[in-house]
Amino acid sequence: MNLFKRNNIIRYHFHPGIYEFNFPFLNYYRVPDEEGKAPVRYVAIRMKVGEEFTKSDKLVSVKYYEDNDGLSIQSFIVNISNQVTNTIIKDIFNGQIPIGAIEWYEEHHLLGERKLFKVEMEWDAKDKTYINTPEFDLISIEECSEPIKLKNFSVEHEDLKLKN
Question: To the nearest whole number, what is the mean pLDDT of the chain?
Answer without folding.
Answer: 77
